[in-house]
Design a protein that fits this description.
By secondary structure, the chain is α+β, with helices and mostly antiparallel strands. It is built from 14 helices and 13 strands.
Length: 431
């Protein structure tokens, strides 16, 4: 099969639409499941590889192994099959095996790093935790990934991490190599024992994840060389650069995780994924508390941490939406209190001036808005701007009325001011 595959239907139901990836053994296509009417991803084994019985068995073994994995951070296997070669081909070659995966809409972690460079520490740790959880689930099924790298980490639109390409034994390709007849993973992330052709265990995935975390925090892989073999040998002989020299904002706890995860000697490395995961979760809580804020994907991971670890993160950082709603609710309550207080005149300041109240009476200190001018005819206000002066506690301020010559009011029954002691104060004296 070639790149003319788009448009062809596999297994009577999977219509290939576009090629979205390729590697040393296979190509990956976006396809459409015409039965369930949903997009899927299909991995097809290359013809030249499928003709090798060992490679063919390795591909089938991958399908069986990954089909056993059921984890939210692992791309799920939906189906597998083998498409017969077209009869008109006349080549007599075998059919093409394929594996059907869930289709993850989003970019790879490598794409993100290339576009953005180094990630914020909480974001990098949140991604590392999700990858570690996926690897832990695989290790429980006795499956070692052997090729942990950001190209194999898919970022779903909602921020969740999905790891793919479990159990792939790669041949010589642009990003992998064969050493002494043994297949090893991409050399940028390869563990020392893997580079030397020694047995690969779960600790090899721990090392590769440590290198990947280094890249997320710095934006670059730790080693570069002219050939993949030279890069692999640097992993064997050299310690990783000090991450704190490149990221001085990192905590010592995060740097210590990198040192232990990428130890050359497996005896000094984390013994397994659960041990690494525990420290990653502690570091995420610490780095988030130091940052004082968290993005959406970080917040989602924080909520999955053990209670003892999660309590170290400030509540507003862990629940930003709830914190915003709480502040808004408090603002509404405060506004309501102020509105109610505005109509409540028992809000003067200080102690009422004048003589002490007579026995049996209680002094009520009225606010300035309790004073009102009075005009029985309602024709015009009586110096309304000054009326609050009678209740401001300052003897130097006054309220005045109109001046009437010789004190004659004529037919006017009177004028003056009144105070309103709402909501209800039976007044028996006024001072």
């Amino acid at each position: 099969m070639s790149d003319t595959l788009p448009g062809r239907t596999l297994g009577g139901r999977y219509r290939l639409e576009a090629k979205i990836g390729h590697g040393g053994m296979s190509s990956v296509y976006r396809a459409f499941d015409t039965v369930l009417e949903r997009p899927v991803a299909i991995k097809l084994l290359r013809h030249d590889v499928a003709s090798d019985p060992d490679q063919l068995e390795r591909f089938r073994r991958e399908a069986r192994a990954v089909a056993r994995l059921n984890h939210p951070n692992i791309v799920a296997v939906i189906d597998a099959g083998e498409e017969p070669a077209p009869e008109e081909d006349g080549s007599g070659r075998r059919g093409t095996p394929y594996i059907v995966f869930e289709y993850v809409q989003g970019e790879t972690l490598k794409d993100l790093i290339r576009r953005q460079g180094s990630l914020e520490a909480p974001q990098a740790l949140a991604y590392a935790i999700q990858i570690a959880r996926a690897l832990g689930a695989a290790h429980e099924q006795r499956i070692v990934h052997r090729d942990v790298k950001p190209q194999n980490v898919l970022l779903a639109a909602e921020g969740a991490v999905k790891i793919t390409d479990f159990g792939i034994a790669r041949t010589l390709a642009e990003d992998g190599l064969t050493l002494d007849g043994r297949v090893i993973g991409t050399t940028d992330y390869v563990s020392p024992e893997q580079a030397l052709g020694q047995p690969v265990t779960g600790q090899s995935d721990v090392y590769s994840l440590g290198v990947l975390l280094f890249e997320m925090l710095t934006g670059t892989v730790p080693f570069a060389a002219e050939t993949p073999v030279a890069v692999a040998m640097r992993h064997v002989r050299e310690e990783l650069p000090d991450v704190q020299l490149r990221r001085r904002d990192l905590s010592a706890a995060t740097a210590a995780i990198l040192d232990r995860a990428t130890a050359k000697d497996p005896a000094h490395r984390y013994p397994d994924i659960p041990a690494l995961l525990s420290d990653l979760e502690e570091a995420l809580a610490l780095e988030t508390a130091r940052a004082g804020q968290a993005t959406g994907e970080v917040t989602a991971v924080l909520r999955t941490l053990p209670d003892s670890t999660r309590r170290r993160v400030p509540w507003p950082t862990l629940h930003p939406v709830r914190a915003i709603l709480l502040v808004a609710l408090l603002a509404v309550v405060l506004a309501g209190v102020l509105i109610l207080a505005a109509g409540h005149t028992h809000r003067g300041t200080g102690v009422p001036s004048g003589p002490a109240p007579r026995p049996g009476l209680t002094a009520v200190d009225l606010g300035q808005t309790a004073a009102h001018d009075y005009n029985p005819f309602g024709t015009e206000p009586e110096h309304r701007a000054e009326v609050s002066s009678v209740l401001d506690g300052d003897p130097n301020t006054t309220w005045s009325t109109e001046h009437y010559v010789e004190g004659r009011l004529g037919s006017k029954p009177g004028l003056g001011l009144y105070v309103d002691a709402a909501p209800s104060v039976p007044a028996r004296a006024i001072s």
